[in-house]
Amino acid sequence: MLLNCGQPMPLLSHTDVPPRVTENFILSGYRFPNYSLWDCLWSAFRPTNETGNFWTHFLPVFIFAYYFVEVFGWDDVPDADAPFFYPLWTYFIGVFCLLMASSMAHLLNSMSLVVREVCFFVDYGTISAYTVGSSLAYYYYIHPQAGIVKKGNHDDTQIGLDQNHESVLTSYQFFETFYIPCACVIAIICVLSCCNTRQRWREHRYIIRTLVFLLPFLISSTPVFYRLLTRSPYSNTSSSFAASTTMPSFFVRHSVWLLVSALFNISKIPERLAPGRFDIWGHSHQWFHCCTFLSILDELHMIKAEVRAILLHPDLLLPPTQFSRLPGPTVASTYGVMLLLQTTIVSIIMWFSWHANCIYGPQRDQTEKEQPNEHLKKQ
Q1: 332 φ, ψ to 5°?
Q2: Which of 46, 34, 41, 31 is closest to 1 using CA atoms?
Q3: pTM attached to this predicted model
């Protein structure tokens, strides 16, 4: 049954669970992979090797939401449902889905081996959706054309740029044509690659998953790299320039936290140094979660700094106007892109889930009958 309010099931050693469930250097604290839904929910308040993994991404949902809604409390901002904020909302959706899917994957993956596979397929899918949500926010708020307005019939007036105008226009053409499509294609490749590591290449799965998600970071961050290598599009005497000056420091911190999280995920430190000592608290995946969230939080602050800079600009560029080179966000170019991407990702997840059910489904009934009796005998 999905709900079973009996005594909590015992926690097990790595030798008492299927090899599929074990993690490197984690020797105890395992939940048997036939928990009911109630057992899984209750395990959030029991010391298991997944408890910290759940809370380190569930609690950050509320922290992220707190800092996110600050934007709508600023003076003279558009309504929360204005087109100006469409990219920001798609970014929020990406982060929210990432944190919730990750926490739920770690909480519910003990219901069965098939459910375990599906949980982490969804987890990988939301990571890719998050990277595209970030790309949309970067595109509309850190675009090379931000702060450059075409005024009059033929004259181009640029703010804070002179000789770099031609390179700006060339970069604009690249971003306008290839940036978002590239981000979506890379996201789909990442989902395919990470889902494959659950069925093949398992000995190198942590390295592959980590490196695969560094690629979308490099692609999505190209507007930021461009801004760091060129002059600010805002006049250095303007309030927009002052608001935008914090962007580089937030991006550096965002990158550092991302790098540290990758090192934790690959190295499996500290549990590699003392197997069994960090089974419940302090193992690498918990630190990986903490560092990834700190990276996301600094990314949010970076995006907010650029949103603030645009809002302080005398010519608000993002809503569609006849003067702006950068087309404003629309439902199709923000929510539509995310919906199309999510539909594709769901299709990929369904295919891998079907394949996982073909592999592990026949084992489920036998496991349910045999293993619980063995564990009860051991108690």
Answers
A1: -70, -40
A2: 34
A3: 0.86
